[in-house]
C-alpha cells in the first residue's frame, strides 16, 4: 500500500527528529505550501501504516498529519529530482480515469497517484529547472476535468 503523509506544524527537523525519521525508514521532504513536510511510504496494510508511521508522527508535539492512501499509482522511471507535488481536484461528474490517463502523457510528471481524501490525485513533478514548473502546471490545467490544483514545492530544490 502506497501512501503520502503530509504534516502541518512540523517543528524544524533537528537531530532528534532526524533520528526518529531515520529509525522509521522515512525521508521527509520539506515543502512550501499548505503542508510543511511530505513523506512517501510503502506499508503492507492499513494497520502497519497507522502503527508504524502515522501514530509515531502524531506523538511529536503539535504536529497534525493528513494521510492520502493511493488506490492506484503510475511512475516513470529515472528523470530529475522531485521539484513539486501537485494536489489535483477533479470536477464532479468527470471520470477520474480520464484525468489520470491524460496526466501520464504530460512532460515533467514523474509519478501520479489516485488517492482517497480531500484531493483526488497527487502528481509528482520532476524537473531540473523551476522555470519549467509554470509550463508543466499550465499543461495540467489544460486537461479537461481538472477543477483545482494546489502546488507544494520541495524547498530543498528552489
Short note summarizing the structure:
The protein is an alpha+beta fold and 158 residues long.
What does this structure look like?
The chain has 158 residues and is α+β, with helices and mostly antiparallel strands. It has two domains: 2-69, Lrp/AsnC effector binding domain/regulation of amino acid metabolism (RAM) domain (Alpha-Beta Plaits, 2-Layer Sandwich); 70-154, 2-Layer Sandwich (Alpha-Beta Plaits), CATH 3.30.70.920. It has helices at residues 15-23, 46-58, 96-104, 131-141, and strands at 2-8, 29-32, 37-42, 64-75, 82-90, 109-115, 121-126, 146-154. It has an eight-stranded antiparallel beta barrel. Strand 2 (29-32) and strand 3 (37-42) form a beta hairpin. The mean pLDDT is 86.
SSE blueprint:
Blueprint: E1 2-8, H1 15-23, E2 29-32, E3 37-42, H2 46-58, E4 64-75, E5 82-90, H3 96-104, E6 109-115, E7 121-126, H4 131-141, E8 146-154
Antiparallel strand pairs: 1-3, 1-4, 2-3, 2-8, 4-6, 5-7, 5-8, 6-7
Amino acid at each position: 500500500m502506497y501512501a503520502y503523509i503530509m504534516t502541518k506544524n512540523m517543528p524544524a527537523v533537528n537531530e532528534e527528529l532526524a533520528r526518529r525519521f531515520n529509525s522509521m525508514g522515512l525521508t521527509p521532504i520539506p515543502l512550501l505550501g499548505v503542508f510543511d513536510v511530505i513523506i512517501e511510504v510503502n506499508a503492507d496494510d492499513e494497520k502497519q501504516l497507522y502503527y508504524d508511521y502515522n501514530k509515531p508522527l502524531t506523538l511529536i508535539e503539535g504536529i497534525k498529519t493528513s494521510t492520502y492512501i493511493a488506490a492506484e499509482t503510475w511512475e516513470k522511471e529515472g528523470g530529475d529530482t522531485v521539484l513539486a507535488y501537485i494536489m489535483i481536484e477533479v470536477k464532479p461528474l468527470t471520470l477520474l480515469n480520464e484525468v489520470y490517463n491524460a496526466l501520464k502523457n504530460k512532460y515533467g510528471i514523474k509519478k501520479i497517484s489516485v488517492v482517497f481524501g480531500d484531493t483526488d490525485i497527487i502528481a509528482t513533478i520532476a524537473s531540473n529547472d523551476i522555470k519549467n514548473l509554470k509550463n508543466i502546471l499550465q499543461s495540467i490545467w489544460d486537461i479537461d476535468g481538472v477543477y483545482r490544483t494546489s502546488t507544494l514545492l520541495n524547498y530543498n530544490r528552489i
